[in-house]
Design brief:
By secondary structure, this protein is α+β, with helices and mostly antiparallel strands. It contains 3 helices and 3 strands; from the N terminus they run H-E-E-E-H-H. It is about 40% helix and about 20% strand.
Length: about 70
Amino acid sequence: MRGRALLRVLSRAPLAYTVVRQRGSHRKLVADDWPDLNFSFHDRAEVPLGLVRKILCNDVGLTEAEALELL
């Protein structure tokens, strides 16, 4: 999955993260009901699937089933 695609997943409902600060490829994302995230991937960089799972399940707090529904 590309960094830009993962950012789109995080920006869509029900997560609805928004970028509040950016410096280069490092972005700070905030959402109302979810923990804040630091997203530091280039838009075209390939993000390994294990890292996508870690971000969605561990960092955001979704279950694996909920994460698969978003993808």
